[in-house]
């Protein structure tokens, strides 16, 4: 008599148990890999937010003085966690440091320089973008048709790579100067007027 009953069922039982253990052991690594992918995506997006400062010009009147910081705002669900804070911590551009502010959808984020809007509700998003129209705030999102709604820069993910869409008309209407270098790496879109 074998250890698990009959030798035939014993070996099948051992193989099945080994397969179950292998699958159970592999599941956390699948979740970890997915978390790594999302973490990497938002590290890339945070780096883009930092680099936008180099390729966009704001009117001097949008700063209270020559050393006032760049204000980076987040509204909606915060997909970055600490990543965005870590990306900007201790860094300066043109002598200006960075401040990260998180806004609720009810707040007026019009006093920031870059606003990342993570709003999936398009009616709320359209209302937010309309409230910022003509104000020198670079609006950045990751929502389908963000640029067509009047947003200025939209992140899309294609084949695991973060790509950009830009709406230069919306940026110019807000008094921002967008470098041709930024437009060269972006798909250009236009605001679609409501029918």
Structure description:
The chain has 195 residues and is of the alpha/beta class. The chain has a single domain (39-188), classed as Rossmann fold (3-Layer(aba) Sandwich). The protein has 5 helices and 9 strands. It has helices at residues 7-55, 83-88, 122-132, 168-173, 180-184; strands spanning 56-57, 70-76, 98-103, 114-118, 138-141, 153-158, 161-166, 177-178, 186-188. The strands form 2 sheets. The chain has a 7-stranded mixed sheet, sandwiched between helices. It has a two-stranded antiparallel ribbon with strand order 1-8. β4, α3 (122-132) and β5 form a beta-alpha-beta unit.
The string of secondary-structure elements, in order, is: HEEHEEHEEEHEHE
* Helical content class: 25-40%
| SS class | alpha/beta
Low-confidence stretches: 1-9, 13-35
Give the number of DSSP strands.
9
CATH topology: Rossmann fold
Biggest sheet, strands in spatial order?
Answer: 3-2-4-5-6-7-9
Largest sheet: 7 strands, mixed
Number of domains: 1
What best-fitting shape do the alpha-carbon axes yield? globular
User: For the CA atoms, what is the radius of gyration?
Assistant: 24 Å
CATH architectural grouping: 3-Layer(aba) Sandwich
CATH class: Alpha Beta
Overall residue-averaged pLDDT value: 83
- Proportion of beta-strand residues: 15-25%
Number of helices: 5
First and last CA, distance: 81 Å
Keywords for this structure?
about 200 residues; single chain; two-stranded antiparallel ribbon; 5 helices; Rossmann fold; 7-stranded mixed sheet
Concise structural overview:
This protein has 195 residues and is of the alpha/beta class. It contains five helices and nine strands. A hairpin with a 2-residue loop joins β6 and β7.
């Amino acid at each position: 008599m074998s250890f698990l009953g009959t030798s035939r069922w014993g070996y099948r039982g051992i193989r099945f148990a080994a397969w179950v253990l292998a699958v159970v052991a592999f599941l956390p690594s699948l979740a970890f890999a997915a978390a790594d992918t999302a973490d990497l995506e938002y590290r890339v997006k945070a780096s883009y937010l930092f680099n936008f400062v180099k390729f966009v010009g704001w009117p001097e009147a949008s700063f209270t003085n020559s050393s006032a910081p760049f204000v980076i705002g987040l509204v909606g669900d915060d997909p970055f966690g600490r990543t965005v804070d870590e990306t900007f911590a201790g860094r300066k551009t043109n002598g200006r440091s960075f401040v990260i502010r998180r806004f609720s959808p009810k707040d007026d984020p019009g006093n920031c320089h870059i606003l990342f809007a993570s709003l999936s509700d398009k009616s709320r998003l359209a209302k937010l973008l309309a409230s910022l129209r003509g104000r020198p705030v670079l609006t950045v999102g990751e929502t389908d048709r963000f640029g067509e709604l009047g947003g200025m820069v939209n992140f899309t993910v294609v084949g695991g790579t973060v790509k950009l869409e830009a709406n230069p008309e919306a940026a110019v209407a807000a008094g921002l100067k967008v470098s041709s270098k930024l437009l060269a790496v972006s798909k250009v879109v236009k605001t679609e007027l409501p029918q």
